[in-house]
Amino acid sequence: MIGETLRAARVRQGLSLGALALKAGVNKSTLSRWESGKTVPYAPELNRVMEALDLSPGQRMQCRQSLDAPRALLIEHGAAQTAPVSSGELLRALRVRSGVSQDAAAQAAGVTQSMVSRWEAGECWPEGDKLHALCFALGATEDELLFLTVRAWQQHEPLPLDKEALDSIVQYLDYHDTTPDRSLMYLALAGRYQTLYQERKLSEVEASDIWGIYGYYLSWRFNRHAEGAQLAAPARESLKQTRGPLSIGQLEAVTAAVEHGRHGKQGADALRLLSEVEHRMQQTHRAWWLTCVADVAESVGNLALATATYQDAIYHAPNALTLHSYQNLFIWLLCRNGLYREAHSYLVPVVAGETRPIVKATNYRNHAWVLAGLGERTEGQRYLSEMNALDDAYQLGLDTGGGMTRSRLERWLTA
């Protein structure tokens, strides 16, 4: 039903699948699967496509009602937002992440294994000294310890043990949720996915990938590099048990570790890890590996290596989207080091048909930053205004990333 409606609207407007994909920011193959009825869309993606097709309110309601529960209910009606992480869920996820059994956790806390099981199930909660001993044994971070101790025992409905329902909550977190404990929810979700693996409802690769993907997401989205690297540890540990090409989760686990090393000035460890996995890198990921080496090289002060490696990464970019991303990263590296004239040669104009706000806003920021560095303030302010308008309209979060925040750029151009 949804696919038929979307296809009819697309054909009526004379749009190809590729044109609609570009306009809505949704993969072309994904749109094709929707139209053929092979898959059902997630609500955030569906909303973007309906907006791009300018469907009537009646058509939009019809499409939303056709979405299957519980996914649509979780996303559209906010069920996911009513599921703050519970103390028991988080405690269990910490234990799974650290690879500690319930028996070992019980010994650390001086209680029985059945008592630890009851804590994780939310039936009761440990006393302060036992909780602190357990958190220490499980390697809890400062934020995790703060949540478990200061907020005391929080009991909520347990997370579902169904992959589709868990995926729905992840979708909600990615697109809608803004609560401060969002990063802890990712950890709790990873623990639930691990349970699915233990019940043989997920493959070993899928289970390992979850930790790597979430770890990198925590590092990249929230700039919590130490926690991201720790969260990705199970996927990184799986590198020792596998010999073939890196999976997506392992790749992102390595990325999380490299980000932590780069920001924590532990560049030597990060470079060593990159060297160890180079021979397992698929050719399509070669350019990614090069950008990681470049970032670490910059962090240890080897700007010549960083510059040469980024140029190599741009040359090996497998597609236009990746090329655009690597150009952005290289421009930021050059600007961070005051090489504005070199950065200017890598600037590209905003494509007239580009509809993705984040792509347009990033391009505007690049221009504003480079022009500010070259002393062309009037032109730089014009690009800054364009960037700010998009950031305000779509809440893109451009006040982080790249080494130049929105607020600092504004001060620079208006000083």
Detailed description of the structure:
The structure is a single chain. With 415 residues, this protein is mainly α. It has 25 helices and no strands. The protein has helices at 2-12, 17-24, 28-36, 43-53, 57-66, 71-76, 87-98, 102-109, 113-121, 128-137, 142-150, 163-175, 182-198, 204-222, 225-231, 233-237, 248-263, 267-277, 286-299, 303-315, 320-336, 340-344, 357-373, 377-394, 406-414. Helix 7 packs across helix 13. The model is unreliable at 68-82 (pLDDT under 50).
Characteristics of this structure?
415 residues; mainly alpha; single chain
Element layout with pairings:
Elements: H1 2-12, H2 17-24, H3 28-36, H4 43-53, H5 57-66, H6 71-76, H7 87-98, H8 102-109, H9 113-121, H10 128-137, H11 142-150, H12 163-175, H13 182-198, H14 204-222, H15 225-231, H16 233-237, H17 248-263, H18 267-277, H19 286-299, H20 303-315, H21 320-336, H22 340-344, H23 357-373, H24 377-394, H25 406-414
Helix pairs in contact: 1-3, 2-3, 2-4, 7-13, 8-9, 8-10, 12-13, 13-14, 14-15, 14-17, 15-17, 17-18, 17-19, 18-19, 19-20, 20-21, 21-23, 23-24, 23-25, 24-25
Q: Mean of residue pLDDT? A: 81
What share of residues is helical? 55-70%
- Low-pLDDT stretches are 68-82
H/E series: HHHHHHHHHHHHHHHHHHHHHHHHH
Q: Please describe the biggest sheet, giving its number of strands, its sense, and whether it closes into a barrel.
A: none
Q: What structural class do helix, strand and pairing data support?
A: mainly alpha
Count of separate DSSP helical elements: 25
The span between the termini is 56 Å
Strand content: under 5%
Radius of gyration: 23 Å
Gross morphology: globular
Number of strands: 0
Oligomer state equals single chain
